[in-house]
């Protein structure tokens, strides 16, 4: 492997090489700082309004072909964090890959949704926006500080019909039932490393994450209505956190509903019907699978 890769932990390079013999170099080369990306919050502003305001602020941007609300800034964000757009919750700063799970779940008015691991709330608020604020969403988060952040973001983004609860999702009441569930699982973050910057990734974190992911997946499936859908996602590219979680769900009786990636998404080889995004200059490494009960 080349020089940049020296900044990535050796154990991870070995794992990637073992799991992706022909792609490991490409993955590691994708561990770079990415431009700021954001989503227009359709509960508060149209994409056109956001585009006009970014232009007025002198911030060049690109649009994203598969999502009209997504923007990719062409340079430094300038005073974006102090702008009215930001303060009034008309935009939400979010990576492009992490905009995909809510799009695939496609929440509709009146549906009953659970976001099992919700903080800081990027995907909960996107789910709320995609349903026009008309889905009933329960957003669960275990960590107290992150829960406060979630509540703040729900309020700022105007996501009104969200019931936020600070709880361990693995211990949710067994009698609850949902039409759709998002399990954006805690993970090692192996898709999001930036070369030269600190990372918490370790073999132990990967193992603990894999264990927790299966616990949460089992619980999520048990809380789905018959025929309901669960979108499983991680910001990891490692098979033990992705394909092996899907295999676990299939062995528990779930069905895999194949996902079709949007054109232009940088992909890694993975199990049929699932999506593994390769980290690159625009996208974080990410994994998605849709399961049905
Ligand atoms: N979906 C979030 C978003 O888009 O902003 C990001 C979620 S992050 C990948 C995973 C979250 O799961 C963390 O906030 C973590 O504190 C939370 N978490 C971990 N274990 C949990 C559990 N057992 N129950 C509920 N939340 C949990």
Q: How would you explain this protein's 3D organization?
A:
- By secondary structure, the protein is of the alpha/beta class.
- It folds into 2 domains: 28-34 and 95-292, Rossmann fold; 36-94, 2-Layer Sandwich (Alpha-Beta Plaits).
- It contains 9 helices and 13 strands.
- The protein has helices spanning 10-19, 24-29, 47-56, 84-87, 100-105, 122-130, 144-156, 203-222, 243-251, and strands at residues 37-40, 61-64, 67-73, 91-93, 112-115, 136-141, 162-166, 178-184, 224-234, 255-257, 267-268, 275-277, 286-292.
- The strands form 2 sheets. Strands 5, 6, 7, 8, 9, 10, 11, 12 and 13 form a 9-stranded mixed sheet that branches.
- Strand 2 (61-64) and strand 3 form a beta hairpin.
- The protein is globular, with a radius of gyration of 19 Å.
- The relative contact order is 0.15.
- The protein binds S-adenosylmethionine.
- Residues 98, 117-123, 140-143, 146, 168-170, 184, 186 line the site of S-adenosylmethionine.
């Amino acid at each position: 492997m080349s020089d940049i890769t020296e900044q990535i932990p050796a154990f991870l390079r070995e794992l990637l090489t073992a799991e992706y013999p022909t792609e490991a170099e490409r993955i590691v080369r994708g561990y770079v700082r990415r431009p700021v990306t954001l989503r227009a919050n359709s509960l508060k502003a149209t994409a056109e309004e956001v585009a006009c305001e970014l232009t007025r602020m002198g911030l060049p941007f690109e649009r994203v072909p598969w999502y009209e609300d997504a923007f990719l800034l062409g340079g430094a964000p300038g005073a974006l964090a102090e702008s009215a757009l930001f303060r009034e919750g008309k935009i939400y700063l979010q990576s492009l890959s992490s905009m995909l799970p809510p799009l695939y779940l496609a929440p509709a008015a009146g549906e009953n949704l659970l976001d099992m691991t919700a903080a800081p709330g990027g995907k909960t608020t996107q789910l709320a926006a995609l349903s026009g604020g008309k889905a009933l969403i329960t957003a669960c988060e275990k960590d107290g500080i992150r829960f406060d952040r979630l509540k703040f973001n729900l309020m700022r983004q105007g996501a009104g019909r969200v019931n936020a609860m600070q709880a361990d999702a693995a211990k949710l009441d067994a009698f609850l039932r949902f039409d759709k569930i998002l399990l954006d699982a805690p993970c090692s973050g192996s898709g999001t490393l930036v070369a030269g910057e600190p990372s918490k990734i370790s073999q132990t974190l990967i193992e603990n994450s894999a264990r927790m992911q299966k616990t949460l997946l089992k619980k999520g499936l048990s809380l789905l209505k018959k025929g309901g859908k669960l979108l499983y996602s991680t910001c990891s590219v490692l098979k033990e956190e992705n394909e092996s979680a899907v295999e676990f769900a299939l062995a528990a009786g779930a069905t895999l509903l194949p996902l079709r990636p949007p054109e232009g998404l940088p992909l890694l080889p993975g199990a049929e019907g699932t999506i593994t995004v390769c980290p690159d200059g625009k996208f974080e490494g990410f994994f998605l699978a849709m399961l049905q009960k």
